[in-house]
């Protein structure tokens, strides 16, 4: 049996922004083949790269449409690794620093919102991921002989949280933030929706299709 080749764009993304992407697909504002990668891999660059390589190989074989990598520049490390991976496989990556930057519309929107890196931005996915992230940080610190007291001082420059309400589950997530038991205040709640993310994705799809025609 011959496997059907898909013609619509394939979007490979971290499941930190799963809720936002599924809402866009449900409302038919986005028409893509969605492949979600578990945010667990974010705690290990090697595991994430290995997983992404396997997915990209498979999708490039079975997808007629363009493949879009919805990951930030920093998601594989500080030395442009994610862009190098996209170039190696000939796929188009969104112009964004990380997942939060994607939600904000990419193109260094995160830096504009927090130029001094004093804030922690949270979405539904980030809240769920934070427990794993914080646990990993404490485990690594313990291995290096760093106490929790010293670790806490490393975050003294952080003023607090900014919650980005993207899909309208504000009250539920405010309760989850309280349950994290992190001694930081919620400084601001921004109801931003998913339009900025949608625009970033559509612009990237248009860019990929334009490049395809030029070649």
Short characterization:
The protein has helices at 18-26, 45-62, 81-89, 99-103, 109-113, 124-143, 148-154, 170-179, 195-214, and strands spanning 10-14, 33-37, 67-70, 92-93, 119-122, 160-165, 186-191. With 215 residues, it is of the alpha/beta class.
List the helices and strands and how they pair.
Blueprint: E1 10-14, H1 18-26, E2 33-37, H2 45-62, E3 67-70, H3 81-89, E4 92-93, H4 99-103, H5 109-113, E5 119-122, H6 124-143, H7 148-154, E6 160-165, H8 170-179, E7 186-191, H9 195-214
Number of DSSP helical runs:
9
The class by helix and strand makeup works out as: alpha/beta
Q: What are the secondary-structure elements, in order, as H or E?
A: EHEHEHEHHEHHEHEH
Distance between the termini: 32 Å
Helix content class: 40-55%
For the biggest sheet, the summary is: 4 strands, parallel
Number of strand segments: 7
Q: Strand sequence of the main sheet, in spatial order?
A: 2-1-3-4
| Dominant shape | globular
Question: How much is the radius of gyration in Å?
Answer: 18 Å
The averaged pLDDT comes out at: 88
Strand fraction equals: 5-15%
Give the uncertain stretches in residue-range form.
1-5
């Amino acid at each position: 049996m011959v496997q059907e080749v898909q013609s619509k764009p394939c979007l490979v993304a971290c499941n930190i922004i799963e809720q936002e992407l599924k809402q866009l697909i449900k409302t038919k504002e986005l028409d893509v083949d969605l492949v979600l990668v578990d945010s667990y891999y974010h705690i290990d660059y090697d595991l994430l790269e290995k997983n992404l390589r396997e997915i990209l190989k498979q999708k490039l074989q079975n997808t007629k449409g363009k493949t879009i990598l919805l990951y930030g520049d920093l998601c594989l490390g500080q030395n442009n690794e994610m862009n190098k991976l996209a170039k190696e496989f000939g796929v188009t990556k969104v112009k964004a620093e990380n997942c939060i930057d994607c939600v904000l519309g990419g193109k260094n929107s995160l830096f504009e919102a927090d130029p001094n890196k004093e804030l922690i931005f949270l979405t539904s996915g980030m809240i769920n991921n934070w427990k794993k992230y914080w646990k990993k940080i404490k485990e690594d610190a313990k291995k290096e002989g760093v106490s929790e007291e010293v670790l806490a001082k490393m975050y003294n420059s952080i003023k607090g949280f900014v919650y980005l309400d993207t899909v309208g589950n504000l009250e539920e997530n405010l309760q989850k933030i309280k349950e994290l038991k992190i001694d930081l205040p919620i400084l601001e709640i921004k109801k931003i929706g998913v339009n900025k993310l949608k625009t970033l994705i559509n612009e990237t799809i248009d860019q990929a299709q334009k490049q395809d025609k030029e070649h």
